[in-house]
Specification:
Helix content is about 30%, strand content about 30%. It contains 3 helices and 6 strands.
Length: about 110
Amino acid sequence: MPKHTDVEFFQGMFKFAADHLEQHGSLQIIVPVELLDKLIEEGKSNGLHLQKQIDIQSFTDSQPFRSILSFGRENLKLVQDNFIIYKERSQHSDSYKTILKPYFLAF
């Protein structure tokens, strides 16, 4: 089973983060959306609050398939955003190009 679908893997990660994060530090992870509820609860049980969630979608009209989650000790107002990969079929979004430009010669 891949680590990103193994809840026990994340339990250990949250425990480690709870033991080692500084007061204003954060744990940031990219996960399949199917694990969101379980991981938010796991964070809470370790004293870590979901502070930011960025849902990753292929297109503006498609469902998210991954989320970038940011957890911290402080119970802040949740910031939510979306990250769209494609403007249209075979054409990357401007956001995608901007973020990945340093890593791809094609951009």
